[in-house]
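Archive maintenance. Older records in this collection stored only the sequence; we are now back-filling the structure field for every entry so that each record is complete. The fields below show one back-filled record exactly as it appears after the update. Entries are processed alphabetically, and NurA domain-containing protein is next in the queue.

ARCHIVE ENTRY
Title: NurA domain-containing protein
Organism field: Staphylothermus marinus
Length field: 404
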Amino acid sequence: MGSLTYLIDKIRRIAENNIDTYARDDDSRIHRLYDYIEYVSENVKTTRKPEMTFIDLGKIYPSKRFTNIYAVDSSSRVVDTPYLFIAIGSVSVINRFNGFIIDHPEPSQLIRSSPTSTGKFLAIVPEIISIIDDIRSDIEEIAYTHNPAGAPYTPSYNKFAILDELRIRLENYMLKQLCSRNIEDSILFLDGPIYYVPPIIKDIDKNSMEYQYLQAWKILMKERVKLVEKIISRNNVVIGIVKRLYKTNLLSRIDPLGIAGNARINDEAYLSLAVNNVVKNNVKIFVLGPIEYSFYNTRLNTVFPVKKIYYLGIPKRTIYGYSGFREYAFYRFEILSSSERFLDNKNISSLDPVLYDSVVAGSILPLSILIVDQRVKKITSAIANNLIREISQSGETTLRYISL
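Back-filled structure field:
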């Protein structure tokens, strides 16, 4: 961490003599910009009514072994000082069956050499007005100082948006690595949606800060979709695993089970109602879907491909008897139509690899996702903790930014 800690020491010395020039913006640290993604979905297609199907836990026998499963996830942490906001990110891809691993940044490389040789894995916002431009030029090799649309990361730029942009940038970087490795006939799990739509699409003033966030989102998502389609073109399947269903209300907008009425409840609450009103005492895995989802916005000249969304409810225990919503775990998986056609040609359901890596492996969530999730969190935590020690910063300042 040599060059970064040297830079921080330099800024701290300047800060001691420039207290009145701080540009720290505490308002930019309050609001999580994308807390409720896809609440404003503009076009949800329902060519046929999504159906609920049940699968007996005792009758899940894998028709095929899926040892070609790869999983990608990213993580971020923050060291937040009075004079510098530092977002630290990492991304990994693993195949738990054959030991395939790529990390960025690579931990041992950080130990052996300075961060400048590892590529960008940071986003930094200097918060001392008099030296902002000088600091940016010093850290361009190791950190992002502008958003993907070219807007500078200023003290007023939403800090949670910076973290979101950093993670997507790193995930896109890893998707490029997979493209260069020529992986074929495999299944790639993404921790998160294939693409997401933020709640700031409508009524945006082009002179506002929100417009800068929107432009960054547009660039990152277009790149992500392009990379996903390139991976699919090589006879691969890409599946997004979305764990936090309280952030969307897709189901209540469509209400396929007729249980929401006029309420706009989140998807987790909707599935909880489904357990109590529809599933009742079945104590079986249930699948609700598919829902065909697409996004098109003429004002932004942006169109994303149709993805099919399925919701899964998995009992946390296998004892028959009363089963309320608290005994179920919910998540969703999504797949582009091109991937699903590829699986159909092989007589494989898109549900098969998901259940193979989760229920068949003795887990609720896909085990590959859980493993890569823990790996990236340990890498970012190690980098952040080391940096906190070197600059004598309180670890408490990082807690509010920790990604789940």
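Update note: The CA atoms of residues 272 and 325 lie 5 Å apart. DSSP finds ten helices and twelve strands in the chain.
Entry marked complete.
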